[in-house]
Write the structure tokens for this entry.
Amino acid sequence: METIMESIAEKVGKELILAGKTICTAESCTGGLIASQISDFAGSSAYFVGGVVSYSNNAKQEILGVSKSTIETYGAVSEETVVEMARGALSLFHTDMAVSISGIMGPGGGSEEKPLGTVWICVKDKDGSFTKKHRFSGDRIENKFSAAQAALKMVTERLSSKG
């Protein structure tokens, strides 16, 4: 069964191959879904090096080097945190590009400031960090898929802007 997300993941792979680039992931709220989608295609080892699922704040700090003060000041679901997650993934995997994501999938955990479905995504490469905040309104599983799709779309947008 082909889904929209799978076609975006396939496009990411083709664009990475054409650009001669590699990618890694640093995921929280999607639990490895982005890495799974990227690696669904034969030959994906040519462009996908690896990923980290850093679900807890401790994992974000210990594995990816996210500063404790960043999480305390801005929260795990913030632009600052996903930028540090992407930076840490690039350092771990030595790729050309990283995509990172953190969000509140629900059904609990939201606040007035950060309601359910709030997601921050970062695509980082040698030219900088490109971030975007999203707000999804589905249930937990729908939000995970929507967030992964949005992250993959950001990767294709970044690759297209380099062409």
Residues 4-161 form a domain with the Maf protein fold (CATH 3.90.950.20). The two ends are 31 Å apart (CA to CA).
